Each structure stands twice: as structure tokens, then as C-alpha cells.
Amino acid sequence: MPSKDHEHEQASLRLTRLDLILQLFLGLVGTVIAVLLGYGQIQLGKLQNNLAKQQIVLQTLTIVSDYLPLVDEKGQNGERARAIIKTAATHLSNEYDSPILAELANSLLEESEIPQTDQAVFQIAEATAPPTSKENWFTVVASFTENQLENAQIKVKEIAGIQQQYKVEIYKTQISEHLAVTLGGKLNKSEALKIAAIARENGWANDAYAQIDRDWTKIE
Question: By the 8 A CB rule, do 170 and 180 touch?
């Protein structure tokens, strides 16, 4: 027959085990709650960011809405409208992954008589899809339609003949299917902006600009 001391030891051991199980259970519950709370905070943060982005997109659309119907017109009003829409559409697509304004403007321009080689038309077409990466940029000094390779090559020789500081190349765009004459190769954003400014200041290309890479392919 077990002694009282032995019974006390067994009871004490059972209590110790129960205490350990309880502590483990409480620790597990605490971990689960912490994970859930953290996940909830992350999701809430994402939701807040998305709402902020959508608010910016909506505000931008509201601001430029008066210019959208004029984007396919000829003359100064049309040029001004395209310049404004191009800037806004490119910004929304590049920074907020929202191509909605570019898509609206591009649908109007595709049926218009505005040349597809117009720089604003080209940039709007490119902005109809968000960039896959925001690391690579180009300085664009001219753009041509797909069947104007010879003209693009002439432009390359022209730019290369008046400056030797930066290499001049032709890239085929995947979205608008244009040929872009670029200066300096693949760059980061600040470099592309800087070289575009240099090109304009020196008269190499009066409308040079920085364009984000959307899986462009180099034409050899």
C-alpha cells in the first residue's frame, strides 16, 4: 500500500505537469494572438495604403478630367491637354500602379488623327501598363513606329555625331510596340532625368525625357 509521502509526491508531480501544460497552452495562445494581431495590423496597414493610393488616383482624375475630352484634338488645346494627361497618366502608372487614366486617353488617341510618333501619345500608350520593375530607366530622345527602323537608325547616327559622352541605342517597346532611341543605356531614375536635362539643354533633343523600363528589348 502506497505511503502518504508517496501519494503526496505523486500529487505534487501531477500538479507540476498540469502547471507546465497550462503554461505551454497559455504561451501558445499568446503566440497565436500575437501573430493574429500582427497579421491584422499588417493587413490594416495595407488597406490604409491602398485607400490612400486610391484617393490620390481619384483626386488626380478629378483634376485632369476637363482635359481628357481634348486629348485627341489638334492645335494648341490638344497639345496642352496631351501634355497634362501624359504627365498625370505616367505618374499614376509609375508610382501608384494605376493605368486607368492612360487607358482612357489611349483609347481616344488610337482612333484619332494624332501621329503615333507624337511623344505624348507614345508615353501615354506606355503608361497603360504598370512597370514590372522600377529600377531601370531610359533617357528617350526620339520615338518611332515599328516600321520606321531606318528613321530610328538615322536618329541614332545624328545624336552620336553631335555627342560622344553617352551611347545611343534603339529599344523595341513591348506595350506600344514603338522604337525608342535612348541615350546612356539602362539607368536609374536620377541618372535618366539628369541625362534628359543635359540633352535638352545642349539641343541634342528638345523633348528628351526619362522613361521607366517596361521590358524593352534592345535592337542590335
Answer: yes
